[in-house]
Amino acid sequence: MxxxxxxxxxxxxxxxxxxxxxxxxILAFTLTIERPQTDVDLTDAETGAAGSASxxxxxxxxxxxxxxxxxxxxxxxxxxxxxxSPPPQVQRPTTTQLPVELVATIDDAxxxxxILRKRDGTTEIALAGESITTPNGxxxxxxxKQRSVEISFRNASHTLTLPVEPGxxx
Length: 170
Fold this sequence. Notes:
Blueprint: H1 3-30, E1 39-40, E2 57-58, H2 66-74, E3 100-107, E4 112-118, E5 123-127, E6 131-134, E7 137-144, E8 148-153, E9 156-161
Antiparallel strand pairs: 1-2, 3-4, 4-5, 6-7, 7-8, 8-9
């Protein structure tokens, strides 16, 4: 963030704080707290005569009462307007995770080569029939094709394929 962006951010923040202060002041003068309504006997200042007893003058404040504000504040307004759908169940593959991944294949008329990356980040180059030792066991490359490699790991056959690049041809 450069200096101009910082100045703009600080000016925006100061403006927001000033606006919030104005809103608080407006609310402080317009909202009222519930007070008991009382009859007030107003006397006429010029004549000194008291107000009539048959029509007492009451002073009431306009606006919501404190109980109404408490009820409004107790409402749960942050809940969703609909029942959310349950999260989708993630199906985990039942096969064991292989300790290597296919990085590339080189398909040549003489020999096809597979480039494999181990979990520790090291790469291995292997021809068909060669073995690679990993901490989890030995992997034997059984066949190398144009975009895939067949391997044997823990007496099970697996096929590793290269992902199709966006815009590329398979």
